[in-house]
Design goal:
Largest interface: A-B, 82 and 84 residues
Number of helices of chain B: 11
Distance between the termini of chain A: 30 Å
Strand content of chain B: under 5%
Number of strands of chain A: 0
Radius of gyration of chain B: 23 Å
Order of helices and strands of chain B: HHHHHHHHHHH
Number of strands of chain B: 0
Oligomer: heterodimer
Number of helices of chain A: 15
Helix content of chain A: over 70%
Strand content of chain A: under 5%
Chain lengths: 280, 267
């Protein structure tokens, strides 16, 4: 039986070759050829597209994306860890409700939620109206880098809370009791026992926030205005506006490499493979 | 005691942060004025207008059509593939799993442009077909990933026993394997459906003339100002999702309870 069901995978194998591997190969091919090569006979290989990316202009965009994504990830961690910790300490009956409330916003269209922030942060938005009501000066919040970071924290915070919660809730209570018995105070117990044991959750949370944050192009476009150009915006611009596929492909390859590196970091730390997959 | 209150306040702040934009959208769907940010009075006219807004209606139609079709096809493809992958061994299996993982870890924008390049290279006209295929491409890996754990838990001896008792392989598959992995299949289907409804980036790069989905309409409106009808639609959709989730929660609780009951009766 087992030997024969092996053949069930064949249709999907063909599917994967056509729609997953071959498109990736095409991106790679575009990234290492010149714009002038328009057929198999006139194909010209070059590394110019990658070299171009190392110009200060584009490197700044890359560093800026990594910087903004890293800041958002750090804020998510600072906000998310206490939240996950509190949820894991609550009674079982309300724990599921709290988790459900964390996931529910993700069911609403991400663009809509981001758009709603435009209503809140805008110059005539709700926050500014509130400020005026209390006699405070209006603040220009929308179309700033801060707004981009806030949008990313907002959209990806659940990705931080859930894996940390999973790690915390799986913790053996016996170990915690042992720490108490051996005279550890609350602070030491947290630093020496709880924090190290929740590290797999923290690592997968960091990767799960960082990966979509570094590649997003909607959030900087809607909330950051023209102020913050991220790698995602650059790729979109090159493909849709400029039609420069070769350069766009080279940047895509670089982005894939960044993602693969962060994935392999996660795999190294995440002993228990279920931790990350459970979120999906 | 103080700690308890502090943690309650902290959770309240987190949830206010998470729900503020959603509440704003819902409240402003009842706002008289078109301008965002100012409350001028209660109205239901945006809900009425929703039924006459052709752009949004057609986008909604395509969103749901593509979500249902792509979810069904990727569930079929994924279930068959998962059974196949589960009985593979060694290197081939790990290659399959890794390639299957690619659309999951790849940034959506890279998946989107790679498919766009594929369609242009083969002169495929952009439209319903290209969006549908793209959605199946990124849905199927999630279906497979949600079925594989169930297959791993499956007792091999059960199928062997079924065949020893005279079941044909197909009959054993239908009567033994499929019922056991059903929860995984349902999870996979729901995940595929929601991923497809929510997708923006991949549809954006593979859409064609006349075919849009809600995300794309919202995106193109966001710069000019979103029509309040979109607020109305999203309020309706969120209410439906909320009701569905509560229903599913209740149902799964009920199933578990009856299972427990059955178990205790057997014991």
């Amino acid at each position: 039986m087992k030997d024969r069901t092996k053949y069930f995978a064949y249709p999907y194998q063909v599917w994967m070759i056509i729609f997953i591997l071959f498109p990736c190969f095409l991106v790679l091919l575009y990234s290492i050829t010149t714009k002038e090569s328009n057929g198999l006979t006139t194909i010209q290989f070059t590394l110019e597209n990658f070299k171009k990316f190392f110009a200060p202009l584009y490197m700044n965009i890359l560093w800026d994306s990594i910087f903004l994504a890293a800041i958002s990830t750090a804020i998510c961690l600072l906000l998310g860890y206490p939240a996950a910790y509190i949820i894991s300490k609550t009674h079982l009956s309300i724990r599921n409700t709290l988790l459900f409330l964390c996931i529910l916003p993700m069911w609403m269209n991400m663009l809509l939620r981001t758009y709603a922030w435009m209503t809140i942060l805008g110059n005539n938005g709700i926050l500014n109206n509130l400020f005026e009501f209390f006699g405070l000066p209006r603040v220009n919040m929308l179309y700033t880098r801060g707004a981009t970071v806030m949008g990313m924290v907002y959209n990806f915070l659940p990705f931080m809370i859930l894996p940390i919660y999973t790690a915390l809730s799986k913790m053996d209570t016996g170990i915690l009791e042992a720490a108490d018995d051996l005279g550890a105070n609350k602070y030491i117990k947290f630093r020496k026992v709880i924090l190290p044991l929740s590290m797999p959750g923290v690592i997968s949370g960091i990767v799960m926030v960082f990966m979509p944050a570094v590649s997003t192009f909607i959030i900087p476009q809607l909330l950051g205005g023209n102020k913050s150009m991220m790698v995602g915006n650059l790729i979109e611009k090159l493909f849709i506006l400029n039609g420069d596929w070769n350069f766009g492909s080279a940047i895509s390859i670089i982005m894939m490499i960044i993602i693969l590196i962060s994935m392999s970091i996660m795999n190294k730390f995440d002993v228990d493979k279920e931790g990350g997959a459970r979120l999906w | 005691m103080v700690r308890k209150y502090l943690s309650r306040i902290y959770m309240a702040i987190i949830f206010i942060f998470l729900y503020a934009p959603i509440i704003v959208l819902a409240v402003f769907s009842f706002n008289e004025s078109k301008s965002r940010g100012n409350w001028t009075g209660f109205t239901l006219k945006w809900y009425v207008e929703l039924f006459h807004d052709m752009d949004i209606r057609s986008a909604f139609y395509y969103t749901i059509l593509i979500a249902i079709t792509s979810a069904i096809i990727s569930t079929l493809l994924g279930t068959i593939a998962a059974i196949g992958i589960n009985s593979m061994k060694g290197k081939m299996k790990s290659i399959m799993l890794n390639v299957n993982y690619l659309p999951v870890v790849n940034p959506d924008i890279v998946t989107g442009i790679s498919l766009m390049i594929l369609y242009i290279s083969f002169n495929i006209r952009f439209g319903f077909k290209t969006v549908l295929i793209s959605h199946i491409v990124f849905n199927t890996p999630y279906v497979i990933l949600s079925i594989l754990p169930k297959l791993r838990q499956l007792d091999v001896h059960m199928t062997e026993a079924a065949m020893d008792l005279g079941a044909t392989p197909i009959y054993a598959l239908r009567k033994v394997i499929l019922p056991e992995i059903k929860p995984g299949i349902i999870t996979g289907f729901l995940m595929a459906f929601t991923l497809s409804v929510d997708d923006f980036i991949i549809s954006y790069f593979t859409k064609g003339e006349g075919v849009t989905n809600l995300s794309i309409v919202i995106y193109s409106m966001a710069r000019r100002g979103v029509r309040p009808t979109i607020n109305a639609l999203s309020t309706i959709m969120l209410t439906v999702v909320l009701l569905l989730m509560i229903l599913i929660n209740k149902r799964s609780n009920g199933v578990e309870k009856s299972k427990k009951k059955r178990k205790s009766e057997v014991m």
